[in-house]
Amino acid sequence: MGIESTHPLYDETKPKWTRVRDSFLGSDEVKKKGVDYLPKLGSQTKEQYESYVLRAMYVNAIKNTVQGLVGAVMRIDPVIEAPDRVKELAEDITGTGVSLNDFISNMLSEQLLMGRQGILVDRTEERAYLSGYTTEQITNWMNDDVIILKESYLKTDGADPYQLEYDVQYRELLIDEDNKFLVRIWRDDNGWKVVDEVYPTRVGQALEELPFVALSGNELNLNPTQPPLLSLVDTNLSMYRTSADLEHGRHFTALPTPYVTGIDDTNELKIGSGSAWILPDPSSRAGYLEFSGQGLQALEKAVEEKRSIMAGLGASLLQNQKSGVESAESLRLRQNSEASVLVGAVLSVQEGIAKALGLLAEWEGVSSDIVVTLNTDFVDTKIDAGDLTALMGAWQSGAISHETFLYNMKKGEILPEETSIEDE
Known about the structure:
Strand order of the largest sheet: 4-5-6-7-8
Structural class: alpha+beta
Radius of gyration: 30 Å
Number of helices: 11
Distance between the termini: 69 Å
């Protein structure tokens, strides 16, 4: 097929990526896919199925969960130990106005969703910068010598220079036969053709390796792994299907239906405060048909069961507030599986960002050891007013030392970590 060919592992994993991406994008994207996520009931017509989909409720647990987990990490700013030039570039790390903190947030979100992504280190005449690539954009790879990236670009209509539209191009990163890094841009013009070819250099010297950092699972490579939140995604879609059946049932059973016996169908009967029915036959009957039974209750119970399953899988933001006080041990156990996924994503992104910034520093001529430290204390442990008062009282009464008091103040995020006893 040529440049648009995809790796066998890409093809194998793509259906899972699609489910995760659609679920994250939300109700409109899920419903747009129709029978992919919500099969038709029996012999539903097109109009009946469209109403069935419209009534269904999709709760976006995926986006809520990812935003909550990323927020738990980014509530404390990353610590970057790097040369001043790198810190200067970090204010706009992409060259398009995105700060390094925002870039890290986006990477954490992508790592939690897909478990695979990449960072390209590139350079204009003025400066080096980072570009992030989603897992779907990394379409093909061959060892460490060739990587194919799918991109979009804006092009103009030849007849109307103001009419813009997006089209696809491929960026090929490769090491050529002379062991030099080469970039080719491919576009479709009655067949895929190379429209640009560049040998990037560093201080006038050709690069001998691809300036691309791949992240997959907990490793720096391109082999796909299971998306970390796939179980949550599948449960979320299952709840969507159950919700569709529940709303479908409610639609047909919620309103009572009037009925009359003993009259022919030529009579026109009106319902309302200004109307009364006079039935000629003493055996005639009038009333309302109303739903009774356990069918809808079973569906309601199924929705709640799946909501609880999602809470256990990581969607704790959907969990109802507890009526009582939750013990510290119970809270720790409930958050354990959630934290393990989050720790893996944090460590992977932390390592990937450090490596990418190292390449960027080399391109800026300021090579140095770079250390990136992301927050792994995901729970806000700030001391509340009551505990602070008790701690202060214990210190004032001599029950605890100044060192112990200061330690607890720092752990409770009242004082910064670098605060010393001398400072206080």
